[in-house]
Amino acid sequence: MTAETAASAPVRFDTKIAVLLRNDLETWQRLNVTAFLVSGLGTAAPELIGEPYTDADDTPYLPMFRQPVMVFEGTKEMLTTAHTRAVGRGVALSVFTSDLFATGNDRDNRAAVRAVHRDSLDLVGIAVHGPRNAVDKILKGASMHR
Q1: d(CA 72, CA 133)
Q2: Is 57 exposed, middle or buried (0-12, 13-18, 19+ CB in 10 A)?
């Protein structure tokens, strides 16, 4: 393979970043939950973050994930199942519960999650990062977000 061919070949990742949202959320909730959920993944796995961007005028921009974020949707029961699978597999995981819609800051968000046992969390979204096959098994049955 030549250097030119290698540069134009599709990039394949051994890992996957995925968000699973409850399918009964309002549009603004889906967007808000997705943003919050993925924000933690780069701190748990700094290698997920690429290099900073610049435009042709040398205006600097923040770096972003180096790989795509796949967004799925499913029922409340599917979220509970996926959460259980993710915890069991030990993958990087962030959660967003329905209680967080009523809080307004990080301290209250953490307190709201801390107040509920794992099996009783009212999940509206999770984000996971891990080996592709593990993430696929965690999300089995979920459909791509439309």
Answers
A1: 16
A2: exposed
Whole-number Å distance between alpha carbons of 73 and 50: 27
Residue 91 token pair: 């993958």
For the chain (146 residues), the mean pLDDT of every run of 10, in chain order, is 63 90 96 94 89 97 94 96 97 96 95 97 97 96 85
Residue 125 is inside which H or E element, if any?
strand 123-131
Residues 80 and 138: their CA atoms lie apart, in Å, by: 11
Name every residue whose Cβ is closer than 8 Å to that of residue 29 and which is 6 or more positions away in sequence.
Answer: 101, 124
Q: How many other CB atoms are found less than 10 A from the CB of residue 58?
A: 6
pTM of model > 0.85:
yes
